[in-house]
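sorry for the late reply, my laptop died twice this morning and i had to redo everyting from scratch. anyway the thing you sent over, i finally got around to it. pasting the sequence first so we're on the same page, its 440 residues, then the predicted structure underneath. double check i copied it right bc i was rushing
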Amino acid sequence: MHLVEPSTHLHPGSAEASASSNPPASASKRATSTSYDGTATNDPTSRHHRIMTDLESPSPAYSYDEDPYSLSASLKTDNEIDLIRANTSRKRDGYGPVTLNKAAYKAKKLQDFYEVQNENIQRWLKPVEQHIQSAKDFDGANHLKYQIAVRGSFAANILLAIIQIYGAVSSGGSLSLFTTMADAIFDPMSNITLIVCNRAVKHVDPMRFPSGKARIETAGNIVFCFLMTSVSFIIIVLSIMELQNPPKTDTKSFHIPSIVAISVAAVTKLALFAYCWTLRNVYSQIRILWEDHRNDLFINSFGLLTSVGGSKLKWWLDPMGAIVLSLLISTLWLHTAYSEFQLLIGVTADTKMLQWITYIAMTHSPLIKQIDTVRAYHSGPRLVVEVDIVMDREETLGVCHDTAEELQTKLESLPDVERAYVHIDFETSHKPEHFLKKEL
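ok and here's the structure:
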C-alpha cells in the first residue's frame, strides 16, 4: 500500500506565497497539506518560460477557490509544447528516427511530460461533481455497447465452441485443433462467470456482506484462470504421449472442413477483439473479454498453422504445436491470475489516482490545516481510500465530524472508489496510525 508521507510546503495563504501570487484575504483560511511540496527547485516547469504567440489560445480562467494552488499557471499550450521540440531538434528534422538524436529524444520526453501534466492539472481542477456526472453520462451512453460486448461475446462463444468441436473431431485427431477446441469450450463458461459475478455484485445482502461483493468478480476470474491452466496441462500430457508413439506415416490426414471451421473462429475473434478495444480500460469485465479474444485470436491462428503443417510437412508439428499453444495459454492465464491476485491482496492504486485523491483532500475545506497520510489500495476491482486530515485541536467535535464526513462522501462518490475512511488528527509528528505488519 502506497503512503504519501508528510513533507512541508508553502501554503497559498502563507506570507511567502503571498509575496509572489497575492491571493485574496480568505487564503489564510485555506487548507494546507503536508503531502504536497510546492517549493521544489527542480520542477521542470520552471526551466521553460511561457512563450505566448498569436496562434495560442489563453488558458482557462480559474478563480482562487477553484485553483488555490495556481496550478493553471503551469498549463502549457499546444503551441508551447510544439516549440519545445522545434527549439531542440531542428537539426534532426528529416534525418532518421528520434532514437538516433539525443536532443530530439529528450525533447520528445519533455513534450510527453507536459502533456501528462496538462492532463493531470485539468483533471484536478475539474469539480468532483462534474467527474461524477461524466461517469454517469459515459455509462449511460455506453450501456448498450457494454451489453452487446458481454452478451454478444457469450452468444458468439457458444457458436464458436460448437464449430470448433466439429473442427477438432472431424480432423481425425489433431491435437493442435483439440487445444483450440478446449479453449473454445471454456470461453462460454468464462462469460457465464462474468455475468453471474456482475449480478451478484448488484444484489447484495448488507447484513451478510457489509462491504459489498465486488471482490467476487476477482475471485471468479482467478478460478477460471486455473481451470484453463489445468486443461492446458492435460493437452500437454496427451501431446507428449503422441510424440512418444509416432505414426507410421510422415504426415497426418488433411481435412478441409476442420480448416474452414477454425478459420471462421479466428475471423470472429478478430471482430470481437476489435469491438471490445474501446471499452477495455473502462469495464473490468470487458477487459477480461478483450484479453480472451486477443489470446484466442493468436491461439486459433497458430493452431491452424501447426495443424496444416502436421498434415502437409511433418506429423510431429501438430503435437509440438499443441504443446506450444498449451504453454502459451497457461502463461497468459497465470499472468492474468497473478494480476487478479494483486487486486485481491490489496495492491496500491496508481500514482495518478493517489495524486488526485490528495488534491481533493487538500482543497476540500478551509478547516483542514494539513493532510497527514493518504492511502489508496485495491479491494478487488475497486479502491479503498484512507485519508488522515489535520484540524485545529480547539475545533468542536461537531465541526470536525461534519468536515470529515463530507470529505468521505466526496471520495466515495469518485469512480472506482468502493469505500473511503477519513481520520482526524491535530498534528503530524506521530507515527502512522496502522502497522503495516501486525505482531501476534
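The chain has three domains: 1-35+351-428, 76-120, 142-345.
thats about all i looked at so far, will dig more tmrw
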